[in-house]
Design goal:
The chain is of the alpha/beta class and 414 residues long. It is built from 12 helices and 18 strands. The strands form 3 sheets. It has a 10-stranded mixed beta sheet with strand order 2-1-18-17-14-3-12-13-16-15, covered by helices on one side.
């Protein structure tokens, strides 16, 4: 049994920042997805590549983990009689709580939302703002009612008259929730490009951006190398853009995100012997969380939630494969085809990775928990990586370039 190792009480977020000039933030994606640059960090060495060459850079017998979540057009504009505009940003469903059920609702659906200009909206139904009098939007008859508030989010009930599910309501009426740091309005091109080509399951309000670089050609060449691909679903929340505002990491409250993995996914992951490649920090957080859910199942608990600090205060009493076997047993006993849970896990320096051997990721904002995850994987080398990227004209953030990080502690990479 290993001892507890509550994390780095002295870690300061000011030690995990850098100067990001505005002109280095990519406002738009490149015309071709796989033409983005790819920085490779392996064995302390940094090399420059292009993403289209990724298939030749992955070790044989790797397993790529994709997050197949789909971004929903979650930004809606409503208008008061005074003319004031109220922006409503859907964060997660409140009633019903299940995403699939929430998106299939007819007539009404209640969501937790962020509300812009909230001080001007106290009561009443607000009609959707339709400045161009689009008949398709008018026919839906969408309105919103403010029914409560919990901390910094609001409870909003959406109502509509057309006989269509809420998913269609959003597809017709909503706007793509591109990141605020792009400092522009969403355009038609964002409907396609702020979405991975393998996006399937609706629920995210931010894209798993590491996957935006994958094209049909790259995926085909990966498969031609007999590298396996497995998919999970983790719905990315707006908290992914939340900067760390507390001086010390220990005081930061991490956001929680729901995910689902199938029985087949767990079986493949538990029997795979080669390197595991997390495509994005969301995939990484999910597969790392599975280990602690397995420990919960082994202890006879419902494996439903991984707390922020759970990995740091939980003795690691079994292997990753054994933990997955307990999850499979749990699914078998409860006659379930998939595991649905959520994770609040924060991956910061001192974290002991359970299964991530390689990480594909973009460049992250200063003072962010995602930058902490990178530092946890490659150590202080993150500073050299970001310095190199800044001095070699890499493009940053969601529509920017990519990185390929090899875990220096992995024993599966030859």
């Amino acid at each position: 049994m290993e001892t507890f190792h509550f994390p780095i009480p002295g870690i300061r977020i000011s030690d995990y920042t850098y100067d990001l000039p505005e002109n280095r933030i990519a406002r738009y994606p490149l015309p071709v997805r796989h033409d983005s640059k790819l920085l490779v960090c392996r064995n302390e060495q940094i090399t420059d590549e292009y993403f289209r060459n990724l298939p030749g850079l992955l070790p044989p017998e790797s397993l790529l983990i994709f997050n197949n979540t789909r971004v929903v057009p979650a930004r809606l504009l409503f208008r008061k009689e005074t003319g004031a505009l109220i922006e409503v940003f859907c964060l997660e469903p409140a009633s019903p709580k299940e995403y699939i059920l929430a998106f299939s609702q007819h007539a009404s659906s209640t969501w937790y939302c962020a509300v812009g200009n909230a001080k001007r909206w106290k009561t009443g139904h607000l009609p959707l703002f339709n400045p161009e009098n689009d008949p398709g939007i008018s026919k839906i008859g969408l309105s919103a009612s403010l029914i409560g508030q919990e901390a910094d989010r609001y409870l909003v009930r959406f109502s509509w008259s057309a006989d269509i599910p809420f998913s269609t309501v959003l597809e017709v009426s909503g706007r793509v929730p591109i990141p605020p740091y792009l400092k522009r309005e969403a355009e038609d091109s964002d409907l396609e490009r702020y979405q991975t080509i393998y996006a399937r399951n609706r629920g995210s309000v931010a894209a798993p951006t590491a996957g935006l670089h994958f094209s049909d050609r790259v995926i085909r060449e990966i498969q031609d190398k007999n590298i396996d691909i497995a998919e999970l679903t983790l719905h990315v929340g707006a908290g992914t853009f939340k900067p760390v505002k507390t001086p010390y990491i220990r005081d930061h409250i991490m956001h929680s995100e729901p995910f689902e993995v199938s029985r087949n996914f767990l079986e493949r992951l538990s029997t795979h012997k080669g390197p595991v490649v997390s495509v994005g920090t969301t995939s990484c957080r999910c597969i790392e969380s599975l280990y602690y859910l397995g420990l919960q199942a082994a202890a006879g608990k419902e494996p439903m939630f991984v707390g922020q600090w759970e990995p740091y205060v939980t003795p690691r009493e079994m292997s990753y494969r054994e933990a997955l076997e307990y999850l499979l047993d749990y699914l078998e006993k409860n006659k379930l085809d998939s595991l649905r849970a959520s994770t609040q896990i924060i991956i910061a320096p001192s974290y002991d990775f359970q299964t991530t051997d390689i990480l594909v990721t973009n460049y992250h904002q200063p003072n962010s928990t995602l930058l902490l995850l990178v530092a946890a994987l490659i150590g202080e080398k993150w500073r050299s990586v970001y310095d190199h990227a800044l001095s070699h004209e890499y493009r940053f953030l969601s529509y920017g370039d990519s990185c390929l990080f090899y875990n220096p502690k992995s024993n599966k990479i030859k």
